[in-house]
Each structure stands twice: as structure tokens, then as C-alpha cells.
Amino acid sequence: MMEPSSRTTGSLSGIRVIDLTRVISGPFCTQILGDHGAEVIKVESPGRGDVVRAQGNMVNGFSWYFAQFNRNKRSVTLDLRQEAGRAVLHRLLEGGDVLVENFRPGVLAKMGLDDETLRAQYPHLVVGRINGFGSTGPYRDRPAYDFIAQAMSGFMGVNGPADGEPMRAAPPISDMVASQNLAFGICAALVRRERSGQGDIVETALTNGLIGMMGYLAAEFFATDRIPARTGNDHPMLYPYGLFRASDGEVAIAPSNDAMVERLFRALGMLHLLDDERFADNNRRMANREALRECLTAVTETRSVDAWIDHLNRAGVPCGRVHDLRETFADPQVQAQQMRIELDQGELGRIPVTGFPVKMQEAPAAVHHPVPRLGEHTREILAELGLDEDELKALEAQGVI
């Protein structure tokens, strides 16, 4: 059995994660665990590995797309279709704390690792899984990707202009949300295990994650039985709240209550609008949105975006510029929060990736390992399991590693 690792720091130091995931949902989850100190062993198929290793823009033969989701891991290659590969996996699980997989429901069971077997052989183990629709219900066996989850969750149906078609979010949001949900669920199960000694099986699904994010839109549907209308960049329940034209672009303005609306009107020199019965409260402002937009735009287009950002923020009205990614990562606030970091990939140079969104004072997230090459740590990890050189050569000859 592998000895507990002391190579990392962080809240999850000493936790070993066996990572069978690929693409985004799953790898993002295990990266989060690794960022906070868990030892993550990424199990990949020999020869090819995670398909994302060959996707996206390649720099010096290396995928920066893959790098975005796979720091703080070690890579071991195992052919899990072979009995000898599965035997090594079992040895990993004996010393593991967490197993994470994102196969379609039933695939792990075909490897001999159904839920009953996992509970019986590894009662301490926390098993985390991500799939498209969950492991029960009529859609459990359907393949799913982010676009399908965005469509079927209702998420896409509430996004886009009122007179246009439904719109997807550009980032793979269902994958990212499901991964974050799973990381949270795994941590909750580990806390419970500390108290009970018993592991758990934790599941998240792409579609469920987005349904869980519908927030006040779901609440309004439940309350009224009306389908929320698409409102583009306007808030579906508040006005004024959205993008407004300035002299050199658009400024995002977000007064979220009547007090902030009053501050906005005062800052614009338009306090008299509160005496206009069309705009006296939020319900009437929503009903007369276009008329109010015209009034406000007549003023906002007289000054620049920068001028409004300075003036309105000083007045206590939340506002900001619509950034492209170059502007985002050049922003001094983003830089102060270290939301762009670099990984030292040796001969490949330094690779920029997004930073750590969760800030902790006593046990902060950190880079413990750069992004691994395929199978980079196979021999190292298998030697830690107790396999000798002859056994490693035999596995290589069989194509298991």
C-alpha cells in the first residue's frame, strides 16, 4: 500500500485522489482538489491518454487547453480493459481516499467496480462521479455534452435577446458547475468520513447543476407558472439594470434596489424621474423599460465609459466596463487577485492558466505539480505500490502501462 504523501500543503493535504476522468467535467473537479493540497493520480490509457491532450491550440506540441484543467496531478498510464491493469487500479484504491470518474452510467460496473463492490471492498472510499443526466431515470444512458445540458436544463431558454433565438453561454458552464459541485460534495463526504469512518458515493450531473443555478428564475416560474422571458442583457426582474450606451462604448450599470436607483438618478442629474409615475417603483420601471432606457441613454451617451465608471462608483452605484479577455487579464484588480498564474513546464517554458478563485489565509491553494506528461509518473507511482522492476517490465510488455 502506498504511504500517505507529504508532498503538498493545503487543506486537503494527505488526501489521495484516484482520477479516472477525462475532458473537462471531472478533470476540473480533481484539479480543484489538487489545488487545495490533495495528491491526485490521473489514470490515463496508454498511447493516447486524455483526448484533450490533442485538442486546442498546441504550443511546442503541448495543449494549453489540457493545461487549463490538469495542474497539480501525476499521470500514470493503465489499460483498464486488461485484467492486469484493473489489478493495479485495485492496488491504487486500497491506498486511496477518493475515486473520481465521469464515465457513462454502468461503465465502471463493467470493470467490476459496481457500487456494491466499491462499498464492500473499500468502505473508506469516497466515490465521486459526474454524468450527463444522473444514474437514474429514462435518460441515464444518453450521451451528454455541455451544449445538450445547456439546452435541456432550461438555461439556454432564458438566455438571448427577447426577439432572438435561445443562446448558449460561451464557456462550458455545465461541465464547470458540475465539477465544482462534485468537489464540494467530495469535501462534504470526507468531513462525514472523519466522523463516521464511512465513505460515500457522490454524484453530480451536467443538467442538474444548471437546473440548480436557475435561482430566482425558477422561483418566479414556480410562483406564477409563467415561462421567464428572454431579456438579453437586461435583468429579468429589475430595471434599470443592464448595459447603457456611453460616448465610446457601453457601460454595465447594476442598481439592485430602490435606494441604488435613487443614487443612480441623482448621479445622472435625473432625480426628477422619481416623480414620474412611470418610474416611481420597480414594477412601473419594468413596465416602462424602453421609455426609461431612452431617458437614461440621452445622458449616459454624453460621457465616456471611463468617466461613468469613476463617477458612478464614487456615487455608490455598481458599474463596470465590458472586458474582452485581454482587458480582463490586464485589469489591475484581476492582477492583484492573481487570477492569471503561470506553470513552470520545464523545457516547454511557462504556461499561463487561470488562478485560484477560492482564497484561504491559513491553507491557500497552490501549484504543487505542473501539468504532467502522459504517463510521466507511471513507474514512480507503481514503484510506490511495491511493484519491482521485473513486474514493471512485464506490464510494459503486455501493453498495460
Provide the fold topology.
Blueprint: E1 16-19, H1 27-35, E2 39-44, E3 58-59, E4 62-63, H2 64-67, E5 74-77, H3 83-94, E6 98-101, H4 107-110, H5 115-121, E7 126-131, H6 146-152, H7 173-196, E8 200-205, H8 206-212, H9 215-224, E9 242-246, E10 249-253, H10 258-267, H11 282-287, H12 289-300, H13 305-314, E11 319-321, H14 325-330, H15 332-336, E12 340-344, E13 350-354, H16 378-384, H17 389-397
Parallel strand pairs: 1-2, 1-6, 2-5, 6-7, 7-8
Antiparallel strand pairs: 3-4, 9-10, 10-11, 12-13
Pfam families: CoA_transf_3
Protein name: Crotonobetainyl-CoA:carnitine CoA-transferase CaiB-like acyl-CoA transferase
Organism: Halomonas ventosae
Keywords:
CoA-Trfase_fam_III; six-stranded parallel β-sheet; transferase; Rossmann fold; formyl-coa transferase, domain 3; alpha/beta; CoA-transferase_III_domain; elongated; 2 domains; 401 residues; three-stranded antiparallel β-sheet; 37% helix
Report a brief summary of the structure.
The chain is α/β, with parallel strands linked by helices and 401 residues long.
Write up this protein:
The chain has 2 domains: 16-213 and 338-398, 3-Layer(aba) Sandwich (Rossmann fold), CATH 3.40.50.10540; 242-322, formyl-coa transferase, domain 3. The two termini are 19 Å apart. It is built from 17 helices and 13 strands. The chain is 37% helix and 14% strand. It is an alpha/beta fold and 401 residues long. GO terms for molecular function: CoA-transferase activity.
